[in-house]
Design a protein that fits this description.
Belongs to the mannose-6-phosphate isomerase type 2 family. It contains eleven helices and 28 strands. With 470 residues, it is α+β, with helices and mostly antiparallel strands. The chain has three domains: 271 residues, Spore Coat Polysaccharide Biosynthesis Protein SpsA, Chain A; 75 residues, no CATH class; 105 residues, Jelly Rolls, CATH 2.60.120.
Length: 470
């Protein structure tokens, strides 16, 4: 049995400003109509895998993961929540320990949630070959046959063939992301493969190698899984133990050290959607090589990628640029420097800029809110509440609020009152009032919230009761 494990804890800083810590790239619609996260999970069904997937992701994104799974009809996934980010080794260990509780002979197929794959029949064949290696006790990775001198990927040097397997080889060594000159040399050599970050191994084999090669991670995650709590259907790892696991990628912790490493060379249209240049490559282009998404107009531009989910973006007379427009940020880069965007994000973070990590639109388990206007002592927000959901019962010490319903019908608690507020009606919530907003209907509620007071931060919320246990 192959159990798919989707690793969904990345932050995707090279796809800023669309991808940010508060809502990273795997949940964003970058290609087509579905997100990379949704495409990854559905891919396992296209291959005919019957086992329920294990999803390992950040606790802050639990309701986003659940909602995106619901949208594509995946109802049997087991969602394991990381209390803190500890890189791929700890995430993979958590899935392996959880699976080992019921069947440690199961073969786990670990895959990042943000890769694009276009050739499903070729993927099916590669999975079969990797499974054969895994059944023989190897930790098999998928090595992509290079198509260009790529500097954004790590590389694998292919060694001798594995006895008794088809198209599986020993790994001579792993290589870091190369510079351009080194990447050209690796491409010309013909024996190096791109490291896809996907692995396949029996649960007990992965855990055995982890125990021998990275015992601190093994012990910390084992304790965390032993004390896992079920919370609203999610599997919440015990935080204190999990936080003690060193933050190391599986390449460094296990793959480069184990004697059980194997690689399956493959071509199945794989690409890590890790940069805007990769998005450009995967997006249909016009006759001038331009790819666009959203509210965009071009004139005499060539080989550009332009994305706008906000105001109209007009681009004239330029070549080889990436231009990204969101409601609160504009990013312009040469396509050749797409990998360097993460450095700009680091600079923004060092300067304490909220735009580095947070979107204007912030998702919550009940829906989302977005800031429209912010001034001295006031702020205006749009709030969207999904059918059947409710905000926490709360109060504020520093602000009063005025709610105007523009769509739907809201049930509002205000101290001892329970009010029905319909479209084009409003309600005032004075400073200190205990209040809650509920959507008892079948259509979303949209309301405009006007806050006023000396402090308008999100931490001025005292939750008295919360169905989401925040």
């Amino acid at each position: 049995m192959i159990v798919p494990v989707v690793l969904s804890g990345g932050s995707g800083t090279r796809l800023w400003p669309v991808s940010r810590k508060s809502y990273p790239k795997q949940f964003c619609t970058l290609l087509g109509q579905e997100t990379p996260f949704q495409e990854t999970v559905q891919r396992t069904k296209l291959l005919g895998l019957q086992a329920a997937p294990i999803i390992v992701g950040n606790c802050d994104h639990r309701f986003v993961m659940a909602e995106q799974l619901r949208q594509v009809g995946i109802e049997d996934a087991r969602i394991v929540l990381e209390p803190v980010a500890r890189n791929s080794t700890a995430a993979m260990a958590a899935a392996a320990f959880w699976q080992a509780k019921s069947d440690d002979e199961a073969i786990l197929w670990f895959m990042p949630a943000d890769a694009a794959i276009t050739d499903i029949p070729a993927l099916r064949e590669a999975v079969s070959q990797a499974r054969e290696a895994a059944e023989k006790g190897y930790i098999a990775t998928f090595g992509m046959t290079p198509t260009k001198a790529e500097t954004g990927y790590g590389y694998i040097e292919q060694g001798k063939a594995l006895d008794g397997t088809k198209n599986a080889f020993h790994i001579t060594r792993f290589l870091e992301k190369p510079n351009e000159e080194e990447a050209k040399r690796l491409l010309a050599a013909g024996k190096y493969l791109w490291n896809s970050g996907m692995f396949m191994a029996r649960a007990k084999v992965f855990l055995s190698e982890l125990k021998a090669l990275a015992p601190e991670i093994y012990n910390a995650v084992e304790r965390s899984v032993e004390n896992v709590q079920t919370d609203l259907g999610f599997l919440q790892l015990e935080a204190e133990s999990f936080a003690q696991a060193p933050s190391i990628s599986v390449d460094y912790a296990v793959a480069e050290k184990t004697q059980r490493a194997a690689v399956v060379p493959a071509r199945f249209g794989w690409m890590d959607v890790g940069s805007w240049d990769a998005v450009w490559e995967l997006t249909p282009k016009d006759s001038d090589g331009n790819a666009t998404r959203g509210n965009v107009f071009l004139d005499r531009a060539k080989n550009c990628y332009v994305h706008s989910d906000s105001v109209v973006a007009t681009v004239t007379g330029v070549d080889d640029l990436i231009i990204i427009v969101t409601k609160d940020a504009v990013m312009v880069s040469h396509r050749d420097r797409a990998q360097d965007i993460k450095h700009m994000v680091s600079r923004l973070r060092e300067e304490g800029r909220a735009e580095a990590e947070k979107h204007v639109r912030m998702y919550r388990p009940w829906g989302f809110y977005e800031s429209l206007i912010q001034g001295d002592r006031f702020q205006v927000k749009r709030i969207h509440v999904s059918p059947g959901e409710k905000l926490s019962l709360q109060k504020h010490f520093h602000r009063a609020e005025h709610w105007v319903v523009v769509a739907g019908t809201a049930l509002v608690t205000r101290d001892d009152e329970v009010l029905t507020v319909k479209e084009n009606e409003s309600v005032y919530l004075p400073l200190g009032a205990v209040h809650r907003l509920e959507n008892p209907g079948r259509i979303p509620i949209t309301l405009i919230e006007v806050q006023s007071g000396p402090y308008l931060g999100e931490d001025d919320i005292v939750r008295l009761e919360d169905v989401y246990k925040r």
